[in-house]
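Entry 14. Structure prediction run on the chain below.
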Amino acid sequence: MKCAAFDLKAYLLGEVGPAERTQLEGHLTSCAACREELERLRWTEAALLTLREEEIPRRIAFVAEPAPGRRRWLWAWGPRWGFASALVLALAITAHGLLSSPSAPPAPAAADAAALERRVSAEVERRLEPLIRQAMAEAEARHRRRLQEEVAAVRREMEFQRKADLLAVEENFNVLKKRMNVLQIHLAGNLEGGLR
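Output returned:
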């Protein structure tokens, strides 16, 4: 069976039936490319599971905001270039189909599709990695800022409580001091009365 017939992502997530699972495991023993792809998927899953759960940003800055400087012009023309590229590619495929001889053997589409998928995956990873790192750095900075604000608020509250406790202790001390003075005066009066 060809590699394209198997869905490694569904296998990794446990979404395939027992018969298909047995076929795929048999295929994995003989196909190094599929084993390597499955290993990459496992590493990706493991990396994703190590990320902290965090609140999803309401707006993703690297998608919603225009690129700074010279790149802004490139980003503005991006959809137009994509459309033009797709049009040129469609014309080239049509011309090739019309001009090629009917006796030419068909190209191996499965191998080309797998290679194309690998190249696309690599390009997506290459482009997304800096954006993910930037988003994570921004999220960590927000988390650090929030933590510092909360620590500062707790410190202010503790300082306020400490001052309130000191005032209460001072007031209690003054009350005790006054009581002691009253007792001393009372004892002194009793001693004078007893000596007469």
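The CA atoms of residues 121 and 127 lie 10 Å apart.
Filed with the rest of this week's runs.
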